[in-house]
Every structure is written in structure tokens, then in C-alpha cells.
Amino acid sequence: MAENIEPQTQTDDIGPDPSLLLVDDDAPFLRRLARAMETRGFAVDTAESVAEGIAKAKTTPPKYAVVDLRLGDGSGLDVIAAIRQRRDDTRIIMLTGYGNIATAVNAVKLGAVDYLAKPADADDIFAALTQRPGEKVELPENPMSADRVRWEHIQRVYEMCDRNVSETARRLNMHRRTLQRILAKRAPK
Question: What Pfam families is this protein classified in (predicted)?
Fold first, then answer.
């Protein structure tokens, strides 16, 4: 005789503490993501600035966090550091529209468990937040193009030079204005 087995719900993936802090200065995106995460079982709190994110992290450190890298008043890396000072088991996802390897490495060193480039949808974010340790991440269907690899290298050198355009241009043997044009553009696909 077969037993009735209930399918696992998404809240089972979250665990006993569903607290989630979302930090992003794009208000419409923040509202949409908050609604999407609430429907998946999270208890969502939001912040639109580094200062607000740090304050919320200090008063009620969350079990989960999704933090944008570039905010109007600074870097989301500061919010990650504030969360880590209060709670070391928080699963933190770094989101950014300016994805590059150097900032991903910094985010992971500070305690982020994953790094997603915008536009990331709610399913990708939920999967990253609830991924169990040791689970394999699916390989991308389309690997990076040569232009994207070049852009990533330029971004890495730029970060290594503490975001100094002149020093970066010198190290890359590139004209400074050419470098500025590349840095002003979005990442190629």
C-alpha cells in the first residue's frame, strides 16, 4: 500500500528562521523582489541604503540577505560586513548590475555565499539562498564571450588599482580615455 507523501514546500527549504533582509536602492525592483520572496515563505525586511541596511543588520540580524553592491550612499560590502559582525550563519547573496570577478571575490571574502548579476529573477535568488552546502551549481548554458572575459580582466585590474583610472590604464598599456569609455559601458554578454 502506497503512502501519501506530501511534496516538499518551499518553506521547508528555508528552515525555522525565515528572516530575509533585502538591500537595494532601486525601489521598484526592491518592492517586486520583496513580494516574490514573501510568497516563497520569507519574512522580508527591506532597506534602500547602506546606512539603513547596516542599522537593520545591527538591530535584527537576518538569517538570509540579498544585498546590492552599489547603493546611492556607498557599497553593499559594508552591509555584508555589518551582518557578519552580528551573525555568522547568515546566507548572503550579492546582487549587482556591474558584475565583475574582483568584486565577487571581495563579497565572498566578506561572507557572501553567492554573487548574481542583475537582472536576476526571484527563482535564481531563491535557489541561491536555499542551496545546501556541497550542492553543485548548474553550469551556464552559454559561457562568457571573449569580450566579456576582456571586460572582466579590465575590471579586476581596475579593482586591484583601487579604482584609479590612470594607474589601471598604465598597467593595461591602454590610453586613459579608452579605459574610461570601457568602464562607462555595461558588461558585454
Answer: Response_reg
DSSP secondary structure code for residue 120 in this structure? P
Do 120 and 112 meet the contact criterion of CB atoms below 8 Å apart? no
Least confident among 94-98, 137-141, 145-149, 181-185: 137-141
Residue 121 and residue 103: Cα distance in Å, rounded? 20
Whether the Cβ atoms of residue 88 and residue 108 lie closer than 8 Å to each other: no
Q: How confident is the model at residue 64 (pLDDT cuts 50, 70, 90)?
A: very high
The crossing angle, in degrees rounded to 10, of helices 101-110 and 146-160 is 60
**CA dihedral (149, 102, 125, 95) positive or negative:** negative
Residue with the three cell numbers 579590465: 154
Tell whether pTM > 0.85: no
| Crossing angle for the helix pair 146-160 and 176-184, to the nearest 10 degrees | 110
Question: Within 10 A of 98 (CB to CB), how many other CB atoms are there?
Answer: 14
